[in-house]
Structure formats: C-alpha cells, structure tokens
C-alpha cells in the first residue's frame, strides 16, 4: 500500500533539509527520493530507509523490525530497506540524521550500479 497524502506531505516537510524530496508510486509502495536518488520507501504509512554495510551500525536499533520484503515464488525476499523506529516521527532532527545516512547509502548503491552497468558499444554507422 502506498503512502497516504498526509504522511507523504509530512515526510517531505521533515526531510526538506536533505534537498529536493519527491515521492512516486512503485511496486505498490511509495519510493522516497532526494535529488533523484531513492533513499527510502513507504508502505502503509511506515517509513523504511536504505541500509548497506557502511551504515548498518547506525541503524542497529531498526534491526528489531523486519526489513521491507516481498514474496516471490513462495520465498520471502528481504530488501535493503529497514523500518525507522516510530519514535523518530516525533524527533525530526534525528529522523533527518537517519535519512542522511540512508541517502549516503543510496548514493553508494547508485554509484556501484553505474560502475557495474555494461557499457554499450556504439552501433556502426552505415556508410
């Protein structure tokens, strides 16, 4: 389920210190982007942020909740998005710190994908 309009507006306001925050529906959820990089997802008005090996320790508190996941061919696939603790909704400064760490992880993932993408050979031009 996607983010409600009120929750989406709340997140945009809270995360504004990071940069231009936008949201778009994807995979039945809402992707949260900052300056074009996806730092989180929302489902059922619950905010999940991007986690990687570099920032996992920062999000140790979030480990108590299962990561965002989906079912595929009878298996549960965990995504690299962890649920932020509910207390952060009432602590905007700390929410921004978590979101900043998630944004850094999202940028690392995006950079790694760009490096790993196969380069296309230019098509030969007809003579």
Automatic annotation (TrEMBL):
Taxonomic path: Bacteria, Pseudomonadati, Pseudomonadota, Alphaproteobacteria, Hyphomicrobiales
Domain TfoX N-terminal intervals: 13-106
Species this chain originates from: Vineibacter terrae
Pfam family, one: TfoX_N
Name of the featured protein: TfoX/Sxy family protein
Signal peptide from the UniProt entry: none
């Amino acid at each position: 389920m996607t983010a409600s309009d009120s929750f989406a507006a709340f997140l945009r306001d809270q995360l504004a210190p990071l940069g231009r925050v936008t949201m778009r529906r994807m995979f039945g959820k809402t992707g949260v982007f900052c300056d074009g990089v996806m730092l989180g997802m929302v489902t059922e008005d619950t905010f999940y942020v991007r986690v990687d090996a570099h920032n996992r320790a920062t999000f140790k508190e979030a480990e108590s909740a299962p990561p965002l996941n989906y079912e595929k061919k009878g298996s549960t696939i965990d995504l690299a998005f962890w649920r932020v603790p509910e207390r952060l909704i009432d602590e905007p400064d700390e929410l921004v710190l978590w979101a900043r760490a998630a944004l850094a992880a999202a940028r690392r993932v995006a950079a790694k994908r760009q490096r790993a993408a196969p380069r296309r050979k230019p098509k030969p031009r007809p003579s």
